[in-house]
Amino acid sequence: MGGRGTVARREGDLVRRCYAGLDGAAFEAEVVRSIHALLPVEAVFFATADPATLLFTGAAAEDPLAAATAQFLDNEFGHHDVNKFHSLAIGARHVATLDAATCGQRAVSARYREIMSPLGLGDELRAALVTPAGCWGYLCLHRADSSHGFTPAEVRLIGRLATHLGNGCRQSLTVPHRDPIAAAAPGVVVLHPDLAVAALTGEAERWLAHIAGHRPGPGRLPVAVYAVAARLQSIDSGTARPDAVPTVRVPSTTGGWLLIHASHLHSSAGGDIAVIIEPAHPSTIAPLLLSSLGLTPRERDVALLVLRGASTQAIGGELHLSAYNVKDHLKSIFDKTGVRSRRDLVARILAGQ
């Protein structure tokens, strides 16, 4: 791993790359490369997430993890286990190791017994990449199966990086609307209960080709499609709350956004799942874009009311703020979003300019 000076320099380099404005694919490659330079690990899993639903919007999984994607999704959404990504995202502790969670008894974890051990993997270090604007991604590092797990110093290192990595994910998802997708019919992907593809429409093939970061291959779908289907199954099984939403927003290669949602096919005797893919309405994306631009929760509330055409007086009445405080929030919003007026803000967020 190198001396302390080398590690500190590489850590600083990765932090700087988090704020370099890299797009999703470039940032993903940079994170994976930098993690290998910082720590001796067997494999890296790195994913971006929708902060509203905490579902994956995209992911990179190195071998041997990639071949076991379906098993990891089933564990994440269908079974109780330690250090679930969702639990790390909403809990007080955002970084944890398998060894610490199981007190060194790895076999307590079904994920270790059924997936990792057969792959020759041992301890894992998981992190939810949480920022003040929400959770924007996840990181999981794997060591080869041995008695040596991740050290407290390595856990602290990832803990220091987690918020920066989350901000990098947040910025990488903020794609300018260069060429929004033309209106077209929604696409439908039908999945069997084991998430194997049963059928898909021509429109679905088109939308799948537009999902940023997806690497097409035989029978391979974007992780976001699998994630919404697995979330739906977890709601059915009771491992997720009934009010959990099997929906995720993902950036497209054209600069627009797509909405992916899972639903049951009630006429299907085998319990097949329909995943609908369609262009996202600007109003659906506005809260995500405002969060990704670094607005505070209160600033997001003010900005959303601006997008609805509310006056300064109406905003103040709705949010119990003085006119002075509303104007102060608006100034901060304009500074963070790089606009000069309410009209410019509406154009940037809703018109994609």
Topology record:
Elements: H1 4-18, H2 24-38, E1 43-49, E2 56-61, H3 69-78, H4 85-90, E3 95-97, H5 98-101, H6 110-116, E4 121-131, E5 134-144, H7 152-173, E6 187-191, E7 197-200, H8 202-209, H9 223-237, E8 247-251, E9 257-264, E10 273-279, H10 282-292, H11 297-307, H12 312-319, H13 323-337, H14 342-349
Helix pairs in contact: 1-2, 1-7, 3-9, 10-11, 11-13, 12-13
Structural class of the helix and strand makeup? alpha+beta
How would the global form be characterised? globular
Radius of gyration: 21 Å
Order of helices and strands: HHEEHHEHHEEHEEHHEEEHHHHH
Strand order of the largest sheet: 2-1-5-4-3
Largest sheet: 5 strands, antiparallel
- Terminal Cα separation, in Å? 45 Å
Low-confidence stretches: none
Residue share in helix: 40-55%
Strand content: 15-25%
Oligomeric form:
single chain
Q: What is the number of helices?
A: 14
- Total number of beta strands: 10
Mean pLDDT: 90
